[in-house]
Structure formats: C-alpha cells, structure tokens
Amino acid sequence: MNYISHYRSPLGNITLASDSNALTGLWFDGQKHFGSTLGKEYEEKPLPVFDRTAEWLDIYFDGRTPDFMPKIALNDTNFRREVWNILLTIPYGQTMTYGEIAGKIAHKCGAASISAQAVGGAVGRNPISIIVPCHRVIGSNGSLTGYAGGVERKAALLRLEGIAL
Fold first, then answer.
1. Does residue 81 sit in helix, strand or coil?
2. 78-160 — its CATH code?
3. Is the dihedral of CA 81, 83, 86, 92 positive or negative?
4. Which of 134, 137, 138, 156 is catalytic?
C-alpha cells in the first residue's frame, strides 16, 4: 500500500509518497511525472517518514543545509538509480552538468561515453525532488535547461542555496 501526505512550501504545494517505511516520492503538485511511484491505490496517512521529511524541508526552505536525510527508496532501472545516486553527491550550493554525470557513469562502467541526453532523461524522472537534488544539474554552458517542477522553481531553489544564476 502507498501513502501520501502534503507539504506547503514557499514554491507551491508538495505531495509526499511513502511505502510506509521510506519516502518514495516528492513532487510539486502538477509537475511533470507527478505521482510516478504511486500505485493505483493510496491513502493519506500520517507517518514518521512524512514528519521527518517535513522537518528536512522546513530546514531547507529556511535557507539552511539539513544535517540528516529522511529514509528514501529509489526504485527504478539500474541506470536511473545510478544517476540519482550521483545527484545525492552534489553538495548543497553547488552544481554539476549532465555531461559530468555522464562521464562519472561511463568511468564507473568502463564505457567510452554515456549520453548526456540519457542522463537528462533520468534526471527528469527523479521521483524525490529537492532531497535528491536534480535542481542542481545544469547544462554544459551553465543554462538551467529543464526541471520537471518548472524552470522558475529550479532557479528559485538554486538561489535559495546561494548559487548565482
């Protein structure tokens, strides 16, 4: 069974999803790929993981770096999980390009190269926005490119972290 909760952020309402144990989704309401990890049946229910996530988000939106992570579960293809795990290594207030992520995966796999566009597809499908910081990924020329929650939100999240655009 899947469960949901809601969080009001300064950038819009957010829906959280959980399998009752870990956070499985965090989306701005109405964003692209909204609810991608939710099954057909779910119910709204208070859970400790939702409380912990709300605490994390409160700290983050207050402009501070959270010093803990709510328990998360990233379930998808191996490639997407590889990309999302790299996203988790991007420090608060820093960015990485799609090409840099592709290079890291290629190096790890022993491949000559990996498509930055394939990386972009995986980044765009990240089911746990903000906490798995897909907003910190930018184009090779420094452009914001896309963001499932909207480029305006991506810019606002980066500004919140002190990143000059």
1. helix
2. 1.10.10.10
3. negative
4. 134
